[in-house]
């Protein structure tokens, strides 16, 4: 039974990573590429690590796999956000058919301070 669960988790994880790879090629601009890659690849790697933890079923291996999953799920979205923020501030352009730029006019380029748009606090 565990073998079937490991196969399902491994296949699902590999498919998520495949979606991330396809998204990297198919998405039109930097921001959407990074978004799909961070989301899908993080989920795919997490599923593969859960499969590893179940397959080996040793305390040391399971603990390491769960620690990697925890740090991956904590750091990947934050690093993706910071990379996109740095790209936006350095002038990487949005896709020419983008409909909305929510940061436009809400930050000072010289200090890179963001305003919430809610007015003064």
Entry summary:
With 121 residues, the chain is mainly α. Helix content is 69%, strand content 3%.
Report strand %. under 5%
Shape: elongated
Relative helix content: 55-70%
Main sheet specs? 2 strands, antiparallel
Which H/E pattern describes the elements? HHHEE
Total of helices: 3
How does the helix and strand content classify structurally? Answer: mainly alpha
Task: Give unreliable regions as ranges.
Answer: none
Q: Roughly what is the average pLDDT, rounded to an integer? A: 89
First-to-last CA distance: 57 Å
Lateral strand order in the biggest sheet: 1-2
CA-atom Rg in angstroms: 19 Å
E-strand count: 2
Walk me through what this model shows.
The radius of gyration is 19 Å and the shape is elongated. The protein has a two-stranded antiparallel ribbon with strand order 1-2. α2 (30-56) runs antiparallel to α3 (59-90). It has helices spanning 2-26, 30-56, 59-90, and strands spanning 107-108, 113-114. The mean pLDDT is 89. With 121 residues, the chain is mainly alpha-helical.
């Amino acid at each position: 039974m565990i073998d079937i669960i490991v196969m399902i988790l491994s296949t699902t994880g590999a498919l998520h990573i495949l979606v991330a790879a396809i998204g990297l090629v198919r998405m039109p601009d930097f921001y959407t590429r990074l978004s799909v890659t961070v989301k899908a690849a993080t989920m795919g790697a997490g599923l593969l690590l859960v499969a590893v933890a179940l397959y080996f079923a040793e305390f040391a291996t399971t603990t390491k796999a769960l620690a990697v999953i925890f740090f991956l799920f904590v750091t990947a979205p934050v690093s993706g956000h910071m990379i996109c923020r740095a790209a936006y501030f350095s002038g990487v352009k949005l896709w020419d058919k983008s409909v909305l730029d929510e940061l436009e006019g809400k930050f000072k380029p010289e200090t890179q301070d963001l305003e919430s748009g809610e007015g003064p606090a």
